[in-house]
Amino acid sequence: MNARNLESGEGKQHAAGDNGGNANKLNAALKPRHLTMMSIAGVIGGSLFVGSGSIVHSAGPAAVLAYLAGGILVVFIMRMLGEMATASPDTGSFSTYADRAIGRWAGFTIGWLYWGYWAMLMAWEAHVAGIILHEWFPLVSVNAFTLGVTLVLVLLNLFNVRNYGEAEFWFALIKVVAIVCFIVVGTLALLKLWPWGETQGMSNLVAHGGFMPNGAKAVVVALLGVMFAFLGVEIVTIAASETPNPAEQISRATRSVVWRVCLFYIGSIFLIVALVPWNDPLLGQPGYGAYRRTLEALGVPGAQFVMNFVVLTSVCSCLVSAHYTASRMLFSLAKRRDAPALLGRTRGRTGIPVYSVIASCAIAVILALINFVDALRPKDVLDTLMNITGMVAMLVYLVIACSQLRMRRKLREEGKEPLVRMWLFPWLTWAVIVFIVAALTTMVFVEEYQTVVLSTGAAALAVVLIGQLRHGPGRGGLGVSRT
To answer: Coiled coil where (predicted)?
Structure first.
């Protein structure tokens, strides 16, 4: 299949995971409003509400620089991904593009790493949900709630994909309303127009040891946590293959990512570091959350309950999305013969990749059950998994940049112009690659992350070697079907 055929009916069937017939094809049941809200929800993850407090506490007011750097990187990455996805919509997204642009081994490697990322993330999100529900209903243990939330939410992905779209739409809407309200309240407080609590204007930016009290090293370390928070915005390019007009929807979502990142992340984090001293001991308390602490400092009544509700909604949203994304990536791997063929089968007219859903669900349930085994120290397991997923995010972005670098040249050779184009090509693409490599190299020399970087690198190398043994180092071209 050549690049031009990807825009024909044949190409759309391949993008949906079809091999030429109607069997084993994903159902294009997602509506434009679903995809629009999913693209917004991908930016607002549970880690924004839960993990931002520890990042601010460790990096000081300069944490906003880590979020700014991560935000700019994500904007560039989404632009590159949007360019490739509008030219060739595919449920495998960047894994498929790595397959075509770099080689079979690259698509194999990044696909399995990404699937592992979301499978592990489900355990963390469910654990956070369990903690919140236990606070509301202390007679039931955290572990029981964690398992219950996992089982209930993964069931959504066993039905028509429209159910997932509806659930994510309403979850996302709650998150958007919450973050917008926070920004309004924070802005009023910054302008000293908020009638309750004590506000210091912007003096907290430099009042407690300066803007960068713990040095540049702390900002670099914070970047890994920031990248973990950002990963998820690319879900829209995976889900788009289950919409009637994927290229147009991807183009729209990609073009709007700039204002979403600026508003939801950089804007809100700036308000936090301006309104709350970075050395506030509650910011460093695990799971406390910078947003909750800011609302409490401003005297907002019921701040704890409000933020717990928002966080619960957010982690439920992320859990559903994580399971959806993991199952679709596994489905794509199976269609490219990089996973057992059974995982590439769909169920009847619903078009649900039921075996991929069950396989991803099984991992989530197993990780949830680990919580009941005290000897395994489940909290340590979850913390280790989350540090590793931050590294996976960086590797995914590196592969996207390298793939776009090669695919643009293929598009030019074939005289094609994608709906979305990366700015200042190839200079910005190279700049992104250099930045990611530099950040990963720097983290090798940061004591707190040496073990994580090296262990993640070793795991990635092992998957690369498996991919090399399976497929060899050969490089594919744009649009070449290998199914």
So the answer is: none
